[in-house]
Structure formats: structure tokens, C-alpha cells
Amino acid sequence: MGTEAVLRAAVAQARRVVVKVGSSSLTGPGGGTIDEARLVALVGHLAAVRARGGEAVLVSSGAIAAGLGPLGLATRPRDLATQQAAASVGQGALVAAYARAFAHHHLTVGQVLLTADDVTRRTHYTNARRTLTRLLDLGIVPIVNENDTVATHEIRFGDNDRLAALVSHLVGADALVLLTDVDALYDGPPSRAGSSRISAVLRPEDLAGVEIGGTGSSVGSGGMATKVESAGIAGAAGIPTVLSRLADAGHALAGEDVGTVFAPQARSRASRQLWIAHATTPRGRLVVDEGAVTALTKRRTSLLPAGIVEVQGTFTGGDPVDVCAPDGRAIARGLVNYSSGELPHMLGRSTHELARDLGAAYEREVIHRDDLVLL
Ligand SMILES: Nc1ncnc2c1ncn2[C@@H]1O[C@H](COP(=O)(O)OP(=O)(O)O)[C@@H](O)[C@H]1O
Ligand SMILES: N[C@@H](CCC(=O)OP(=O)(O)O)C(=O)O
């Protein structure tokens, strides 16, 4: 069996699978309503996974699109507040439609709304993981979406592709399936004559020269770029991804030759570190000296106050920040233990000195090595 066939078989046999469906393939022409027939067909495929003894987590976009009609809007609003209002109206309708469709298969759904914080901050991701795992143990189909109504610009994924990859980490999925409105990854814009389907991405070089563009619809948001990124995030934790159009979902889940399959990378990094690298938007920058660059990159140490020369941005303890070399290049990203107000008083000083002058609480490293990922 070739590598591609092995991967497709792994998807077909996945015990736990995360399936993500995009707004563009769930909505009818114009994008203002959810196409119930497509939703029902998708639910049928997920029920089939359950019927063969598997478990499924559905990550569904479409809240904003589902809210357009009831709000009398013709197109997806551009401003965040109206998008959030649309999501608030649409999310309930969307999950109600899923609950009805799953009930025909005697399956119950549970809604899980997540923000980027929920999959990056230690306490939150542990909670999210526990809830999702418990739902699966109870035989429920979790339906995940971004918590659009509270997410702000800074912390928002916007698309659900990367969120789906992070959810696949959270639940320890065996496969990730991304369903969209295009049948596969193409080597150029799918609308351009001469572009051809890529059936498998087995190594990063397979993406060299591929023109990966933005969304082709009025309701989708990440386009192909966030899907390829999502496959990379899942792959880094050893999880294979299949991308296909919604109409081919059954074939994709059965391991047939549709869409594009992405091989996981050979070396998987700790998934927590991946969340930090891929899920977070840095709230500030810590510029460090050359000694700290070497310590972090060569010796993989924690970041201590002594090596920091400048603090940029406004952040609180627990926020993601970039660590930059003296030339401004971001070399790492991590979750910082102190706020941007506290740090300037600590720069260049040893932890011993800080503990003596400011108290034991200041003995902690600025970013612990477990919370730091090299970029
Ligand atoms: N190289 C490519 N191959 C396939 N599709 C691409 C490519 N570059 C850009 N796209 C566009 O990405 C779109 C899918 O992304 P998007 O609209 O965000 O969907 P979704 O709502 O499912 O997340 C396709 O409809 C297509 O127009
Ligand atoms: N959380 C948003 C998802 C936004 C979106 O368009 O995502 P996608 O279609 O996956 O690119 C919603 O439910 O409308």
C-alpha cells in the first residue's frame, strides 16, 4: 500500500474523528440561509461514523450566515458587532437544525462554544478537553463553534479551520476532515483553467509552488490558506487530514479517493506548544539580548528577567507574547507570567535579587519553557 492509501485507510478506520464544515458549503446561493438538505446529509455521514463504532466531533461554521436571513441582511456584515449579532441569532438556529437532524438517528448533540483562549490557557484548555471528552463518553455528538459573540478582534480565529485542528488535538482525534465548497486543494485558483487537483500532500515540499488563496464565497472566511494551516497543525500532532467538498463527505470518511489527504509530520511536537504557536495572537513583544537568544534556542531554557531588554505592548499574566531577538526578529512565542506593568521593574535582574527585593512571587521565570515554543 502506498502512503496515500495508508492515510486514507487510517481516516476510514479512525476511532475518533473531528469533522469541520465551512459556512460556504452549508449555505444556499447568496449565503443567507442554511441549506437544510445539505445539513441533513452531513448528519447522515456522522451518524454512519457512530454506527460503525466511531466517535465524531462536529466543528460547524455557519452561525453568522444563518443569522443573516432573520436579521434581514443580504450579505455578511463587515463590522465585528453586526457579525456577532448575526452569530447570536444564527447559532441557536444552526444547533436546533442539527439537533433535529441527529434526533432522526437517535443521537443527541451538545453545543460547545470556544474562544482562542479556551484552547491555549492551561486552565481553560483542560476544562474544554474534559467537557468534550465527557460528552463523547456519554455518547453525545459535540458541535463546536467559535464563541463569536464574545470573541474580540485580537483573540478571534474568525475561520473555524484552525479551531478544528486544535479541537482535534484536544480530543486526541485519529483524523480531521475539512469539508468545504471546493472538491480538493488545487495547484492554483480552482476557477482558473488548467489548475489541477492535488490528491495528497505527503511532505511540505508538495506545497511548493501551490497558489493558496483566500475565500471564494461571500460567507466563508479563511479560504484555502487556513485549511492548509489547519492540516499542518493537526499533522504536527500526528493527525492526518482530508479536505473535500461537503457533497463528498461520505466518500472522504470512507477513505475513498476524493479531495486531498495531508500526511502528518514525522516528528510530532507537544500539542500544547502547537496551540501556543498556532492559536494565539501575541499581545506584546519581549526583546531579549543575544545571551537569552542562545539560551532559548540552543539550550531550550525558560526565559528569565535577566535576558530581557525591552517590553512592548500591553498584556497581563497568561497572555501570549512574542520573544524577539535584538534585531526584532520573533524567535519564540510563549505565555508570559507577568503583566506589561510589572516587567519593566524586573528587566536585567536575577531571579534571586528579585525574590529578595520584591518577594518570592517574583522568583518565577518570565516564560516557563513548557509555555514557550520556538518559531
Ligand atoms: N489552491 C486552492 N485550491 C482550492 N481552493 C482554493 C485555493 N485557493 C483558494 N481557494 C478557495 O478557497 C475556498 C474555500 O475556503 P472558504 O470559502 O473559506 O470555505 P469554508 O467556508 O468552507 O471555510 C474555495 O472555494 C476556493 O475558492
Ligand atoms: N464562527 C463563524 C465562522 C466563520 C466562518 O465563516 O468560518 P469558515 O466558513 O469556516 O471559513 C460562524 O459560525 O459563522
UniProtKB/TrEMBL annotation:
Q: Which domain of life is it from?
A: Bacteria
Function recorded in the entry: Catalyzes the transfer of a phosphate group to glutamate to form L-glutamate 5-phosphate.
Which residues does the UniProt record annotate as the domain PUA?
A: 284-363
Task: Kindly indicate whether the keyword Kinase belongs to this entry.
Answer: yes
Looking up InterPro entries in the UniProt record yields:
AceGlu_kinase-like_sf, Asp/Glu/Uridylate_kinase, G5K_ProB, Glu/AcGlu_kinase, Glu_5kinase, Glu_5kinase/COase_Synthase, Glutamate_5-kinase_CS, PUA
Q: Which residues bind ATP?
A: K20, T180, D181, S221, G222, G223, M224, A225, T226, K227
- Name it: Glutamate 5-kinase
Q: Where in the cell is it found?
A: Cytoplasm
Organism, per UniProt? Answer: Knoellia subterranea KCTC 19937
